Amino acid sequence: xxxxxxxxxxxxxxxxxxxxxxxxxxxxxxxxxxxxxxxxxxxxxxxxxxxxxxxxxxxxxxxxxxxxxxxxxxxxxxxxxxxxxxxxxxxxxxxxxxxxxxxxxxxxxxxxxxxxxxxxxxxxxxxxxxxxxxxxxxxxxxxxxxxxxxxxxxxxxxxxxxxxxxxxxxxxxxxxxxxxxxxxxxxxxxxxxxxxxxxxxxxxxxxxxxxxxxxxxxxxxxxxxxxxxxxxxxxxxxxxxxxxxxxxxxxxxxxxxxxxxxxxxxxxxxxxxxxxxxxxxxxxxxxxxxxxxxxxxxxxxxxxxxxxxxxxxxxxxxxxxxxxxxxxxxxxxxxxxxxxxxxxxxxxxxxxxxxxxxxxxxxxxxxxxxxxxxxxxxxxxxxxxxxxxxxxxxxxxxxxxxxxxxxxxxxxxxxxxxxxxxxxxxxxxxxxxxxxxxxxxxxxxxxxxxxxxxxxxxxxxxxxxxxxxxxxxxxxxxxxxxxxxxxxxxxxxxxxxxxxxxxxxxxxxxx
Length: 511
Prior knowledge:
Radius of gyration: 25 Å
CATH class of the largest domain: Alpha Beta
Keywords: NAD, Oxidoreductase
Active site: 249
Domain Aldehyde dehydrogenase: 18-484
Oligomer: single chain
InterPro entries: Ald_DH/histidinol_DH (IPR016161), Ald_DH_C (IPR016163), Ald_DH_CS_GLU (IPR029510), Ald_DH_N (IPR016162), Aldehyde_DH_dom (IPR015590), ALDH7A1-like (IPR044638)
EC number: 1.2.1.3
C-alpha cells in the first residue's frame, strides 16, 4: 500500500484506496494507494515551510551535490525504474529507458548550476555606492504533474526547485503512483533533509481545494503544473487571485509542415514517431501534418505504408507504441474518434484493437490491455474539432497548403503554441517558418517530440503562460531577483536627484 509522505514520514490515512493497473495487462495490479484529503496537502505545505529556510541556508554548491547524488542513484537504479514506468503506464521499454536517462541528464546539468546561481554587480550613478543582484528561492513550491512522463517531467520541476533552495510538495498523477513513490525514495536518499520534499497522493478536486487553502494561508509561493489546458486555466485563475504566476505546461496541437522541398522519407519517419510514439499521448505529439499540395499524395502514401507496417503491442518489446495510459484516456480518445466526419478520409479500422477488430502483426495479445488502432485522417481543416482540439491518442490529421504563409496560418490556427516542426531543404523556408510560428519550440527536419535537458521547454497560448522549464531558463521560475543598494559614502545620496551632470557644448558645429 503506497502512502503520502510529510516531513520525511509516511502518513497513515483513512481515505479511499485506488488501484494502479498495468494498461497493457489490466489484470496486473501495480500498486494500491490511499488518497489524501485536502487538509493533508495543507499539512504538507506546512511541513515544507518549516524545512525550507534551513535548506535555503545550505550553500548552493552543496545543494548541487545532493542533486548529483540523486542523479547517481537514478542511474544505479535505471533499469528497475524504466521497467516500472513500462509496467505502470505502458510506455515502450526503449522510451522508458530514455525517460529515465533524462532525469540523469537533468541532474548532471543542475549540479553545475549550483555553482552558477549568479547575481550581478551593477555600476551605480553615485560615488561610493555599489549595486548588487541576488537570486533568492521563492519558498515552497507545489508541483502537480501528469503521468504520461511519470518520472522525467517531475524531475524538470523537482531538480531545479530543490537546487534553488525551495521546499516542495509534489502531487503526481494517480495512475502513475508507483513511479512517483519510487522517485520519492530515490530523491530523499540523495541527502534531502526531512520536509524538503513531500509527496501527496490525491485526486484532482481534493488537490485544488488543498492548494486553494494553502495559498490562502500563505504557505505556497509557486505552483508548477503539467496537464490539460482546462485544468491549467483553473490553476492560473487561482494563482492569479494571490498575485502569483504559476509555471503552466499544458496541451498541444503540434503542427508539422512538409514543404515541396522536403526529404519525404525523413518527414514520414518524423511524423511516425511524433504522431504515434507513446500512442500519441505526449503534449508534444503531432496533431496535424500540413503538406504542400504538390507532394501531398506521395507523402500520404508513404506515411500510411509506414503506419501499416509499424509494430504495435506489448510495450516490453520493440514496438512503436503500446496501450493508452489509463481507462480515462481511452474514454476521451474514443470521444475524439467521434469527431471524424463525412468530409474526412480514413483508411483502416478505428477504435480498440480486438479479436473482432484485429491488426496485422500485433505484438502480443490485444485482449489484455488498452490497445487502439493508429489512425490517419486526411482532409482536416479549420473549424473541425479534429483540427482544433488536442486528441491525446494515436490519431494524426493531414491537410494541404499552397504557400508557406498559408501553412503558417494553418499551423497557428488552433491557438496552441507548444511544439512545431518543418521539413525542408530550403533555408529561407526555415527562417520564414521560425519567425511566423507561435510555438515555443521549433524543430527543423526533426520530430515535434523530443527535448534535451538543457534547452528551454514550454509553450504559449493554449499550451502555457510563457513559462519555461529545463536549462538555465527554469531558474527564473524558482528564484526571485533581489536588488541590494549599498551606500558607504556616509551621507544620504538621492538617485536621479544628485547625479553629476556633464554638460556638452551643444553650440559646437563642424566647419
